[in-house]
UniProtKB/TrEMBL annotation:
GO terms for molecular function: ATP binding; ATP hydrolysis activity. This is ABC-2 type transport system ATP-binding protein. Residues 5-236 form the ABC transporter domain. SMART domains: AAA. It comes from Asanoa ishikariensis. Transmembrane segments: none annotated.
Amino acid sequence: MPAVLEISGLEKTYRSRRRGARKALDGFDMVVESGEVHGFLGPNGSGKTTTLRTLLGLIAPNGGRMTLLGQEVPAALPQVAGRVGAIVESPQFFPNFSAHDTLSLLAEAGGVQKQRVTEVLELVGLRDRATERVRTYSLGMKQRLAVASALLKKPDLLILDEPANGLDPGGIREMRTLMRGLAEAGMTVLLSSHILGEVQLICDSVTIISRGRRVAYGAVAEVLAQHAGGGVTVRLESAEDLSVAAEILIAAGARVTPDHDRLVVSNVEKPAWVTRTLAERGYYVSELAPVKVDLESVFLELTQTAPVAGQARQVDDSAVAPAQGGWGV
C-alpha cells in the first residue's frame, strides 16, 4: 500500500526587501504511512507550517515533489481535497454564528449529510454548547470546533496543526483518545504539536524538522533508541565531590554533564567502569542509573534548542542540519 503522504526534496524560499531571501524549506523529505498517527515536530520557524500550507496548495513551492493519497499535488488537489481534513494555524469562524450553524454551513457547502454535524459535535465534546455563539467560546472550545470542521467529511487523512492549543489537561486527554480512536478506525492523522509528551504518548512515528531540513524520522521507539546513547546518571555519597569526580571521569575519556546533584555520564561502554574509575580514586557512587531518554530531550538535542543559562535564544537559533535526502527514505 502506498504511503498516504510523501514529500521529497521540498524547497520554499521567501523573499522580502527588508530581509532578503530566506529559505524556509531546504530539500525537506517526509513520509506518512496509512493508518498511523504521525507527529510532525520542529522549533518555531523551522518550516512546519510552510510544509503544511504548501502541501494543501495554499502556497507554491520552489521545487520538490509531493503526493497525497497516491496522487501528485498540487496538480491533483481537486481530486483528493475531499478526502483530506485539515486545520492549519489559528482557525477563524463567524463570531455571531453558533457551532451548529457553522458546521451546518460547511456541511451544505461540502455535500455532507446534516446528521454528520451532530456526530462531530459529539466527538469533540461540544454537543451541549452547540447553539451558543462562537464569540462566547474559549480558545479551547474554538479549537474543538476547528477539529470538528476538519472531521466533517470523514477524511482519509486528517492534518492537525496544534490541536491541543487552549485545551485544559482533560481536553488534551480527550483529544488524545479521539485521535487514537480515529487511527484505529483506519484514518491517518498527521499531528503537528509542541506538546512533546503528548506526541510521545499518541504517535506511532515522527518527523523532526529543523531549519527546513529533516533531522529525524521513524517510529517513536526507534528514534528514542537511536539517541539513548548508553548514558548513566551518577550520584555520590557527598555532593561536594561532584566537581572532582567529573574531572576524573573526563580525564579518563568520558563525557560528563553536571545536572544539579548528579552527573550525566556518556561515552562509556559499561556502567561498572564509572564506579570502578571513581573508586580507584577514593570516590564512591551512591546511585547509578541509565539515562531515560524522552522525545523532548531528543528534540532539544537534534534542533539544538535547549535553554542555555544566561542566553536568550532567538527564533532562528535552531540547528542547521545536513539534509536527509531520498524519496521515501
